[in-house]
């Protein structure tokens, strides 16, 4: 028979490593002393003992009722057959003589005499010394902390850059996707660092700096680390804000220390993230700017000018605000190259999906081509977040693999936010259903708009519903398509007005986006009767003078209003013509809450094909 335990397994042996520094020794000793005091107090009897006169104890001994007497100083603990009592004698009186004078013999009674004089002496000594030890230790820690603070003051000027050495797990170009042109530019930097002799023979010098520009999440930091990984050189990473402290001169000192440290490890790469935090244009401000920031920028300019031709040191900086950088920083000779990173296209997104899908179990039916087309406008960070959300959702539902439904829900969550089960009245749901149906039908009727992907009246984020389209990528936006977009945005308000003869606050975001598109058409893209002229007169600072007159501003407002009014009239006329389809779609939304593209096609029909026409001219005439 077996006892149920598996044999043949190695038992784990847990080893406890004790930190024997003097701080811990002092702490452990203090805890032992406290435990000793607690033990001494715990050894005292907890039960309530009856106190009797000494004459009764003598009488009980005489009658033979007492088994044992314990004597501790003046206290007598008497154990009888069925109980224990205590009594007290006069100080200095001998117990044996006391019983002898009373004519009582102690021959048949066990007598124990306890002596705790030595222990009491130790307790008295420790109670006297321990406060002194604690006081000395307290003042020692105070002085030590003060000395450490003084040393930290002088260490402010040292660089706080994170060093990724050759032994650190490296990121390679194969771990970065969707930025092929940027990788090609940086491949030459890698070759410079690996084979400097080849370029010196041709009289070429190593580029001093590379400025990577792109929106957030496109992989600027990842690409810089991949460059260091490919070149197999040390990588010093520091954010622009880390140079700044409240003490004057700290930023410049850290710049000097960073460059000196990197030069000792060359060939090496210095990476400055968010360089616009210290590289803003000098003197841009009514008070002349921040002096400490300008001193830090000046030191960076000096250090980059001081590179000798033989030094193999490259500075890579990243920003998403290149327009605010100082011209002296981005001129040739400092940042020689500018690498542009943009949102990945469908091929790039498919490659990014393949990278971030590693290590995750996916269903074989997942169509990665469809997922890549579904994620138009997603950055690399968005795609990574989407796959992570899909994995979390699949784990929550206890699935063995991630399927298309998980990916679809994750993409919607990243773009619009999680679902919210808000308590809505039937009237609110009906208004939301007609609002979203208005968007969908106007988009279905417009010839240049993308097909409908999903319509839902389930609340997400701040919206009560959403209408999503199957996005297609466009390099250029035409005036015709932009006007159609405005009509689609205003389709929800037009549906509310048509059905309820009422306006709601639900169209506020649509109106803001439509107005923004129309104003941009007028002031930046020259798509109005005012002609091809940039009329962006926005004052970014209160001390700047507007570059357009009040009369021109009034004309801009008039053109914006004409575009939005005409787009709204077009949306209203479409919904009036498709009133039956509008009611049908809204009723279906109230029943199912969410309608996918296939079901939308069965309800409304396939998207019509139109002959290309000048809708912009038709809009202006309207």
What is this structure's SSE topology?
Elements lengths: L21 H21 L7 E2 L2 H10 L2 E7 L2 E6 L3 E5 L6 H7 L8 E5 L2 H38 L7 E3 L15 H15 L1 H6 L7 E5 L6 H12 L3 E5 L10 H15 L3 E6 L17 H15 L7 E7 L17 E4 L5 H11 L11 H7 L5 H17 L7 H13 L2 E2 L5 H20 L6 E5 L2 E2 L5 E4 L9 H11 L1 H10 L7 H16 L26 H28 L1 H14 L1 E3 H8 L10 H7 L1
Parallel strand pairs: 1-4, 2-5, 7-10, 7-11, 8-9, 9-10
Antiparallel strand pairs: 2-3, 3-4, 6-8, 12-14, 13-15, 13-16
Helix pairs in contact: 5-7, 8-9, 10-11, 10-12, 12-13, 14-15, 14-16, 14-19, 15-17, 15-18, 16-18, 17-18
Characteristics:
alpha/beta, disordered N terminus, single chain, six-stranded mixed β-sheet, five-stranded mixed β-sheet, 622 residues, elongated, 16 strands, 21 helices
